[in-house]
Structure formats: C-alpha cells, structure tokens
Amino acid sequence: LGELLSYQSKFEEAEQLLAQSFETRKKLFSNESNIEIAMSFFSYGIFYKNQKKFDKSLEMFDKAIKIRRNELGYNHPETIKTQEEIDKIRIFFIGEKENKKERKSIN
C-alpha cells in the first residue's frame, strides 16, 4: 500500500506505512538478509524514486538486490525487476542529470 500511495504522490502517508511495514518485518524476520526485508527495501526504492530522490532510491534498491541475488538467485523475477529499476535510474535519471551539467557548462 505504501508503494501505491507513493505512485499517487501521497508521500507522507506512504512513508508512514512503509516505516510500519519495515519495522514489523524486522521484528518478524530478525535476519537482515531475509527476502521480506528485501521487499521493504524495494518499496522504499520506489518511494524515493517517485520523489526523484534518486541517490536514496539507488541505495534502497542496492540493498534489496543484494538480498534477492543471494536468496533467490540472479534469474528470479524479483531480482530481475530490482535490477531493472536500478538500470532505469542509472540510465534515464542519472544520465539526464549528467546531460544537464553538460548543457550548463556549454552555456
């Protein structure tokens, strides 16, 4: 639900739900490399991406993918989905940031 709210730009509500979910998962699954914890990191990645906080988003996706690769393998759909999100940010958003810097230096 937190992800859905962040897609709707209801960031304050989304953040509260994401935090509650993350805390619950940490209590239920004490192992930090648990796949449920990875789900929380992924949701936070989406949350930050939707706010255009790409550095924070990458940080969360990186945590999620490390767990997913280890627990599910490189070819699992959830691992692939996480890698695709990372790639989108690196290609489109960070690439655009670099393009803006180049345009400013030309002018």
Structure, described:
This protein has 107 residues and is mostly helical. Helix content is 83%, strand content 0%. It is built from five helices and no strands. It has helices spanning 2-7, 11-28, 35-50, 54-72, 77-106. α2 (11-28) packs antiparallel against α3 (35-50) and α4 (54-72) runs antiparallel to α5 (77-106). The longest helix has 30 residues, at 77-106. The radius of gyration is 15 Å and the shape is flat. The mean pLDDT is 83.
What's this model, at a glance?
The chain is 83% helix and 0% strand. The protein is mainly alpha-helical.
Mean pLDDT: 83
Q: Write the element-wise H/E pattern from the N-terminal end onward.
A: HHHHH
Tell me how many strands there are: 0
Percent helix: over 70%
The rounded Rg comes to: 15 Å
Q: What class do helices, strands and sheet pairing give?
A: mainly alpha
Shape: flat
Total of helices:
5
What oligomeric state do the depicted chains represent? single chain
Pick out the low-confidence regions.
none
Measured between the Cα atoms of the first and last residue, the distance is 44 Å
Residue fraction in strands: under 5%
**Biggest sheet features:** none
Brief descriptors of the model:
mainly alpha; 0% strand; flat
Describe the secondary-structure layout.
Blueprint: H1 2-7, H2 11-28, H3 35-50, H4 54-72, H5 77-106
Helix pairs in contact: 2-3, 3-4, 4-5
